[in-house]
Amino acid sequence: MRAFIRIVLLSEAFAVATFGLGWWAVPIVAAAWALISSTSNAPRLAAICAAAGWATLLLLDVARGPVSAMGEKLGGVMNLPAAALYLLTLLFPASLAWSAATLIPRIPKRGT
Amino acid sequence: MRKALAAVLLAVLLYAGFRPVGNLPPIGPLLDPANGAWAAAAATTFPALQSARIRGLKDSVQVVFDDRGVPHIFASSENDAWRALGYVVARDRLFQMETQTRAASGRLTEWAGKRALEADRNSRALGLAWGAEKKLAGYDRSSPGFAALQAYADGVNAWIDNMRPRDLPFEYRLLAARPIRWEPIHSLYFLSRMSLTLGLNDATMLRLRAQGLVGRAAADALFPLNSPVQEPIQPNGQKSPRYDFAELPPPGSPDSAAVAATKAGEQLLAMLGTRKHTETHDAIGSNNWAVSPSRTAGGHALLAGDPHLELTLPSVWYEMHIVVPGKLDVAGVGFPGVPGVIIGFNRNVAWTFTNTSSDVNDFYSETVDDTLAPSRYMVDGSWRPLEKRLERYADQKGGVIATDTLYFTHRGPMRKLAGRWLSMRWTVYEKSHEPDNFLRLGSTKSAQEWLDAMRDYVVPTQNGLVADRAGNIAIRSTGSYPVRPGDGRGDVVRDGAKSASDWVGMLPLRKYPFSMNPSQGYLASANQQPVDPRQNSSYMGSDWYSPWRAMRINTLLRADSSVTPDDMRLFQTDPGSARADAFVPHFLAAAARQDSAGRSDASLREAARLLGEWDRRYARDNRRAVLFEAAMQDLASRAWDELLEPSEKSVAGDNFKFPEAQILLELMQSPRSAWWDDRRTSGVEDRDAILSASLRAGYAKIVKDKGGPASDAWLWSNTRQANIRHLLRIPALSAMKIPVQGGPGTLSPSGGGGTEGPSWRMVVELGPEVRAWGVYPGGQSGAPASARYTDRLSRWAMGQLDPILFPKKPEDIERRRVISTLTLSPR
User: Fold this and answer.
1) Is the peptide bond before B29 cis (omega within 30 degrees of 0)?
2) Are B474 and B465 in contact (CB under 8 A)?
3) What is the pLDDT of residue A112?
4) Which of A106, B130, B428, B434 gets the highest tally of CB atoms within 10 A of its CB?
């Protein structure tokens, strides 16, 4: 249960940070999470939660407007199928979060 | 290893997130679902109730959007209304507004870098920005028009200030750009651009080019001052067109003196990118007509208009309704970027425009002190200083990628073309106040008041058609027409070293083509020569558009003495063609004579049989129009082969260098004219031989390209289609291959490219309550993901019109038809 709550909270943290600051907040949140996390799979969790956070935001967009039409148009512009764009929209934050969280353990912790 | 991979991946992602890669924009802000493209999709849906505060408003403004996305703006003052209009138009069309103004002012490189450099150079060299800035400097700051420009700009900027990140239009994300602050000059830039589209109708270079190849007498006949088919806008008392045909002088010797001008003209035409549109390559023209109550079923005046322009997504037009109690209650369409209704109606009057296609610019060959880097030019033996302007072209990062020195004489911009310094004078550079003219129209109460409001209108010259509720109809070809010295012609290059070459004034208003309540009971215009030269010989232009559309609408109006609004609508997409009526009999007669003379063959007989089956209508399901068009294209290249350069001998089809088809019709009267001989062949051909050869060749081409006549590829709907491109020419954001009714020379012309056509169709009935219908190809929203981006397209393609809501107050709009209400309050 704690793990589930942790995933939900971290996902929300990614969503809120993106909403408030922008896409570039994703690696920052991931790095912060890696710093305070005691689990060994922090990068993987960060990746999943970043994707989940953006998926939440995407679902909110779907509820509010013609996201599928945008997918078609954007896909057309980028010569990609719309489905690939949705996938990219989830892979992008996941990759950012994973890479940022993976790098963090190399940074010496304060006081050590 | 894992960490190294993570480091590389993070670096790559951050780079791609922040910076464009190749043609791709930065993907971070694009994919961000809170503020990026996905969120922008959500922002295209308006909430039922919205509010915003705007600095400068005097009172609250209510904006009700109906289910067609049209804002009905209810304000207590006109300036509040323009502020609100700027706000809502920017919300729907911000990217378009900026694109158009950048195109006019030559600042596209700041978005597209070197790819846009040539276009920017041409815009600036043409003096569009220079002219607009001069116009603004001379604009009466106390005029209602200037106040409107400023209020409109304030409204646009208020929207930019209020925008959430998600509201940033999609295209800005693709370009990784931010909107500029809007200023009154941007509206004037746009109007300059529109003047380039509509107001540069100079046949000088085409005529000189022909003169260089076939001599002056022939060139004058091919690009004549007066149309040989007279069906003028100002009624001349005739009940049918008058054919002033004369024998064309044979091709003469090349005029070496014109060759230099020819080369300069070639370069100029190429640089302008605004060659005259031939009828098979779409006419940027327009139609309008009005019917007096005596000839309408309802006993009320009717008015229809359909301006033909480049078709783009979003549309060049934005529909609006503006109410300021006691002052203004006007609906119709205007240009995104300019305050006010350009074509529309109020409670008493309806109006629309077609382009007059008059010649309002001239070229002057200048004598300069230094042919490489001039600083002075000669006038009447004295040197005058040149005005110089250093133009810098910046790229996306603000770096200067090119510079140009532009020169200006007292006439206008001067540039070196084929070794000659040519300056150009153009009414676009003259002092004027079109925004004031257009804004005044909305509050006029009668046709006469409307005409008065347009008295001092300058450019582009327009055939302004008006009808009022009292049953009056009137048309005036309005705008400034330069009066030239000497023979008065404007289709020549004049000697710039003489002040006597300059314009001597402008044509007085009383000489403008005009008619009010004519006895025939209707008025119509379709870009034809506006006045019969027997009635008014003032030079207003030359090389006029063929009058096919005018002939067709006049035929329809003469035949119907009980016109209904729906008739007016049907006329707008009528598939009949005066051009086909004129030429098909010639093809058939020629083929028959060749057959009788034993000079026919199975192919010609079959082609003639198929063409004979044609009802001369360009309906979607027609299977014969395609054959006629192929034959006509071939005919033009055979008849006018003398106008092709040696390097162009293989060029087939219609060509902007060829005369209008009405000259071809004139040539039909001379079966043995030297023009019929195709110099590319060894024999000597006459008219019948060429007509037969073209019909045969057209048939062979169509069979080769499309298969036999039973093939669906012969369907007109599979041949001519509308192609409505997005402003950035991105196919995914465009609407392509839309089958439409109409062809070259029909009232709803569709040309080969399909990129131009009726940009707005409107019908207004001026009864006790004004009723109106309209449509344009596209939708109110400029956001490609919006449902309102192309929601009108299918009805436009089918020739249908939407009833236009015209409420007196917000409560008059049925609730089910309201999609959103926006309340704007003073900040």
Assistant:
1) no
2) yes
3) 41
4) B428
Give the residue on A whose Cα is nearest the Cα of B24.
Answer: A78
Residue that is written with structure tokens 């746009």 in the block? B190
**What is the C-alpha separation between B209 and B655, in angstroms, rounded?**
13
What was the pLDDT predicted at B753?
A: 81
- Residue B190 half-sphere exposure toward CB, CA atoms < 13 A: 22
Distance, in Å, from the CA atom of B46 to the CA atom of B67, rounded to the nearest integer, reads 11
Q: Amino acid identity of B688?
A: D
Query: pTM of the full predicted structure?
Result: 0.94
Residues ≥6 apart with Cβ < 8 Å to B142: none
Cα four-point dihedral sign B279, B223, B226, B431: positive
Instruction: Give the pair of three-digit tokens for residue B791.
Output: 């929601």
In Å, how far is A80's CA from the nearest CA of chain B?
A: 11
Select from A64, A76, A98 the Cβ nearest to the Cβ of B731: A76
Task: Please state the three-class secondary structure of B254-286 as a single string.
Answer: CCHHHHHHHHHHHHHHHHHCCCCCCHHHCCCCE
Q: Which two tokens stand for residue B410?
A: 């007292």
Can you tell me whether residue B474 is helix, strand or coil? strand
Least confident window among A57-61, B373-377, B637-641, B643-647: B643-647
Q: Choose the mutation target among B18, B21, B27, B32 for the interface with A, i.e. most A CBs under 10 Å.
A: B32
What secondary structure letter does DSSP report for B501? G
Give the single-character DSSP code of B617.
B
Q: How far apart are CA B183 and CA B827, in angstroms?
A: 20
Mean local confidence (pLDDT), B171-189: 95
Give percent of chain B with pLDDT exceeding 70.
96
Tell me which residue in A22, A73, A102 faces B6 most closely, judged by beta carbons. A102
Number of C-alpha atoms within 13 angstroms, CB side, residue B147? 11
Whether the ipTM is more than 0.85: the answer is yes
pLDDT digits (tens, 9 = 90+) for A73-111: 999 998 899 999 999 999 999 999 999 999 986 545 454
Query: Binning pLDDT at 50, 70 and 90, where does residue B417 land?
Result: confident
Under a CB-based contact definition with an 8 Å cutoff, are residues B747 and B553 in contact? Answer: yes
The first and second tokens of residue B417, run together, are: 């073309």
Measured CA to CA, the distance from residue A49 to residue B38 in angstroms comes to 19
Asked if residue B573 lies in contact with residue B741, where contact means CB atoms within 8 angstroms, the answer is: yes
A61: nearest CB among B6, B29, B33: B33
Give the sign of the dihedral formed by CA B694, CA B700, CA B706, CA B709.
Answer: positive
Q: How far is B730 from chain A (nearest CA, A)?
A: 7
pLDDT greater than 80 at residue B318: yes
